[in-house]
Design a protein that fits this description.
Helices cover 35% and strands 21% of the residues. With 743 residues, the chain is an alpha/beta fold. Strands 15, 19, 20, 21, 22, 24, 25, 26, 27 and 28 form a 10-stranded mixed beta sheet that branches. The chain is globular. It folds into 3 domains: 207 residues, 2-Layer Sandwich (polyphosphate kinase like); 175 residues, Endonuclease Chain A (Endonuclease, Chain A, 2-Layer Sandwich), CATH 3.30.870; 178 residues, Endonuclease, Chain A (2-Layer Sandwich).
């Protein structure tokens, strides 16, 4: 997500790139400026607002679809709890980024409507109304559905007054030993200023009477301790069905603090304790063109994120008006920024229940397969030489990606490894393999994207560790995020150098590879290898390519080539050769991509859009989008893969990659789409992957012409299809017996 007004990067700026080698990035800056200029020019041509869904409201509609999984009794109980925590966390991010951006626009007096016809104030008003409704729905689902079901299953989340004497004694000891030493009450009086309330913090507003005068104090509920405090040890017992299980009991940490708050204020009278939760604007302002060191700029931005303006204050109905007014005044917010909700605040904290050892209340364990093309082969390079290898995560293991890098690190014939890293997570085996390669005297060059939102701190740590070991590290690029996922291995084979490439739709992160659906490709294709070399020269040096042999690269040629491919499909339809395209993406929000899709629909092209989240194109509008079908699949795994399939009059083409159909992806990021050319893999993607998602009638929702979504149900006599479950049962692309595709 980008801030409301992102300045173009002037093409004449040739500032040194911060980090490892400090290589200038004139070509990249020029490409960023040119891409932004093209966007600004294209903005003058507006689409019919009746064809569009507001981007922000479309994002919120996705949260409602995830919320449906909370109320779906076919999901295991603890998974329903997990879905609830995900929606709560997503709402936090929506306020930190999207609502904060609209607040900035309103504060600046901007009244220009978006393409769908809504002004910033209208969008903000509608978002606040709908987010409050969803926040209250979350609270009701927790209180009325999940809490009783958990209790019946032997997982007891208790309010402090519900503790029996033994539990209360244990809780008091825990408070004395583990909680009280961590707490810091902060007073607010003429001698002490109002304390800073950090982003996403859960707090207690404490009203005390001191010498006849009412005083306010704030206690931050420590996020270094469990939000749900286990009460003693798990005990044996029967769940609601009579099955023997260990029982677990928890109490809310903020209630534990509130119950013992007098211990923090000896000698004064505590008159009331009221929880509140604060969300701040978290969009970092990186002044890249002025920053002498991008690493320092990002580190500063992460620190400053805690101090952004407040965009939401959540309180309970029991908070007195004078305390609420005190918070409003000192946090400098408008009354419209207050959400009043029943029950526990910050429900993202219930995610800790996922660690409860109750396999009967969770999805079955995941045992990802090894791709058929790699089974029984210890030489990963030989396997890739025989044929391209497709991996579908999480249905297939992320292990081969790590083994590919480890093999490269240890192979004496490997000379160099180059990678882009966007989100790698903590305890990364990928980074460990790169460090091992460097220690084995390989040439290792890594672009670490420091501006990956909410992963900045982790990426800063890895960048420093790599650089300290002597790895060539590039800390992102001027004007662009590097969102592409690519690894290049250069290997000496006899009298020649061979290049092996791994490209992916997802990050080099083993954790997300177990919960996101993503596709990766291993290939030894010479032209893709040459393109990969050219891409890394583009990222690290002065290279300024205008074209690539196989890859589509943003901001160089990706947008233009995608439009050309859509227009080609349109011409096929007009010529009577039929037309069909299927795009599977996370988001469709770029008008310059919506326009050719509308033209294709008008020409008779069947346009199937599998869009997980934001979709701004409204299907089924007479005379425009009758041939457009928009489907969203929400299930156990987060749909993250991007697939672009074109029928092309029978000569099919398919691309995979890192880019969504959003302006930021196509103009303000380095993205890569890569072709899948092996006919067997193309058929697998068409018939096994895309066709399965399009047939889903269990987890799929279909957008109607009014922009609302309805859940697809099996018709009478139609078998149920859960796309993710079906792919989990049989994920691998087939491999012909001789290792080569037939005619």
């Amino acid at each position: 997500m980008q801030s409301p007004a992102e300045p173009a990067v002037p093409p004449e700026v040739v500032s040194p790139r911060a980090g490892g080698d400090g290589a200038p990035a004139a070509g990249v800056a020029a490409d960023a400026a040119a891409a932004v200029a093209r966007d600004l020019a294209a903005d003058t041509a507006k689409l019919d607002p009746g064809l569009l869904v507001n981007r922000e409201l479309s994002l919120l509609a996705f949260q409602w679809r995830v919320f449906e999984e909370v109320n779906d009794p076919s999901n295991p109980l603890l998974e329903r709890v997990r879905f609830l925590s995900i929606v709560a966390a997503n709402l936090d991010e929506l306020f930190m980024i999207r609502v904060a951006g609209l607040e900035q626009q309103v504060a600046a007096g901007l009244t220009e409507p978006s393409s769908d016809g809504l002004t910033p104030l209208q969008q903000l008003t509608e978002l606040r109304r709908e987010t409050l409704r969803l926040t209250r729905a979350l609270g009701a689902a927790w209180q009325d559905e999940l809490l009783p079901a958990l209790d019946a299953a032997g997982i007891h989340v208790l309010d402090h007054p519900q503790l029996d004497p033994k539990q209360a004694s244990w809780a008091r000891t825990y408070f004395d030993e583990m909680v009280m030493p961590v707490l810091t009450p902060l007073a607010f009086d003429p001698g002490r200023p109002f304390p800073h309330i950090s982003n996403l913090s859960l707090n207690l507003a404490v009203l005390v009477e001191d010498e006849g005068i009412d005083r306010f104090a704030r206690i931050k509920v420590p996020d270094t301790l469990p939000r749900l405090v286990p009460i003693g040890r798990a005990t044996g017992g029967l769940d609601g069905s009579g099955t023997a299980h260990r029982h677990h009991a928890f109490v809310w940490l903020e209630q534990l603090v509130a119950a013992h708050v007098e211990r923090l204020f000896p000698g004064v009278k505590v008159k009331g304790v009221h929880p509140f939760h604060v969300t701040r604007d978290a969009e970092m302002e990186l002044q890249e063109l002025e920053a002498a060191d991008l690493l320092a700029s990002v580190e500063h931005g992460v620190r400053e994120r805690r101090f952004g303006s407040v965009v939401r204050l959540v309180v309970t109905p029991g908070m007195p008006d004078h305390i609420r007014d005190l918070l409003v005044h000192n946090l400098e917010i408008q009354p419209r920024n207050i959400h009043v909700v029943e029950g526990p605040l910050a429900l993202s904290g219930v995610s800790s229940l996922a660690s409860v050892e109750r396999s009967d209340l969770k999805f079955p364990p995941l045992f990802p397969a090894v791709p058929a093309a790699l089974r029984g082969d210890d030489d990963v390079f030989a396997a890739i030489r025989r044929r391209d290898v497709l991996i579908h995560h999480p249905f297939e293991s992320f292990g081969p990606v790590v083994e590919f890098l480890r093999a490269a690190a240890r192979d004496p014939d490997v000379l160099a490894i180059k990678m882009t890293l966007y989100r790698v997570g903590r305890n990364s085996p990928v980074v460990e393999a790169l460090l091992e390669a460097n220690q084995n005297r390989k040439q290792v060059a890594v672009l670490v994207e420091l501006k990956a939102r909410f992963d900045e701190e982790s990426n800063i740590g890895w960048a420093k560790a790599l650089e300290a070991d002597g790895v060539h590290v590039i800390y992102g690029l001027l004007g662009l995020k590097t969102h592409s996922k690519i690894a290049l291995v250069v290997r000496r084979e006899g009298e020649r150098l061979a290049r092996y490439v791994h490209l992916s739709t997802g990050n080099y992160n083993p954790f997300t590879a177990a919960v996101y659906t993503d596709l990766g490709l291993f290939t030894a294709d010479e032209e893709i290898g040459e393109d990969a070399t050219q891409l890394f020269n583009y990222l690290t040096g002065y290279a300024h390519p205008r074209e690539f042999r196989r890859l589509l690269v943003a901001p160089v040629n990706l947008r233009e080539r995608l439009v050309e491919l859509i227009e080609r499909e349109t011409e096929h339809a007009r010529a009577g050769r039929g037309g069909h395209l299927v795009f599977k993406v996370n988001a469709l929000a770029d008008e310059r991509m919506v326009e050719p899709l509308v033209r294709a629909s008008r020409a008779g092209v069947q346009v199937d859009l599998l869009v997980r989240g934001i979709c701004c194109l409204r299907p089924g509008v007479p005379g425009a989008t009758e041939n457009v079908r928009v489907t969203s699949v929400v299930g156990r795994f987060l749909e993250h893969s991007r697939i672009f399939w074109f029928r092309n009059a029978g000569a099919e083409e398919v691309y995979l990659g890192s880019a969504d159909l959003m302006r930021r992806n196509l103009s303000r990021r380095v993205e890569v789409l890569f072709p899948v050319t092996d006919p067997a893999l193309v058929r697998h993607l068409r018939d096994r992957v895309l066709a399965t998602y399009l047939a889903d009638n269990r987890r799929a929702r279909r957008m109607r012409a009014d922009g609302e979504y309805e859940r697809i149900r099996p018709a009478d006599g139609e078998p149920p299809v859960d796309a993710q479950a079906r792919l989990l049962a049989s994920p691998s692309a087939p491999v012909p017996p001789d290792g080569r595709d037939g005619p």
